[in-house]
């Protein structure tokens, strides 16, 4: 019998976030989030419709398209002399994001100085909420390029550690292909 390798804490908590994401019924993306204080797990959440309401797998996604103006030099791949221009973003408004659910179902006192492990980099709205929630660190795996730079800037301004785990491999059968 071979001895198993003990997982580091980042891998352990991110594995839990990916397992939590399997509760999502979103056909576009499964996202899971966990709240950790020290080494203690305080809460879990995933993305989906409000309780008691048909979810996207039952009623379909409610996709809205938005245009966001990106200031000169701030967009992905923007260089000197690039014109400011709109970036098209699509999102489902039926779904409450995992980070939002995590904040709804955990106590402010528990969040003070804590870490959020989330499968995906938080969007701008979730980042704003997390920035005011008392968390000290956000750890994620999958990038959200449309919001990455402005979210990273916000986290630096707030003094929140914002990091991506490189080389992480999610547990088997926990990832859904991005349908967006």
Automatic annotation (TrEMBL):
GO terms for cellular component: cytoplasm. The active site is at residue 99. Keywords: Hydrolase, Metal-binding, Zinc. GO terms for biological process: pyrimidine nucleotide metabolic process. Pfam families: dCMP_cyt_deam_1. GO terms for molecular function: dCMP deaminase activity; zinc ion binding. Its cofactor is Zn(2+). Coiled coil: none annotated. Transmembrane segments: none annotated. Signal peptide: none annotated. Residues 8-162 form the CMP/dCMP-type deaminase domain. InterPro entries: APOBEC/CMP_deaminase_Zn-bd (IPR016192), CMP_dCMP_dom (IPR002125), Cytidine_deaminase-like (IPR016193), dCMP_deaminase (IPR016473), dCMP_deaminase-rel (IPR015517), Deoxycytidylate_deaminase_dom (IPR035105). It comes from the Bacteria. Zn(2+) binds at residues 97, 123, 126. Gene3D superfamilies: Cytidine Deaminase, domain 2. PANTHER family: DEOXYCYTIDYLATE DEAMINASE (PTHR11086:SF18), DEOXYCYTIDYLATE DEAMINASE-RELATED (PTHR11086). Belongs to the cytidine and deoxycytidylate deaminase family. This is CMP deaminase.
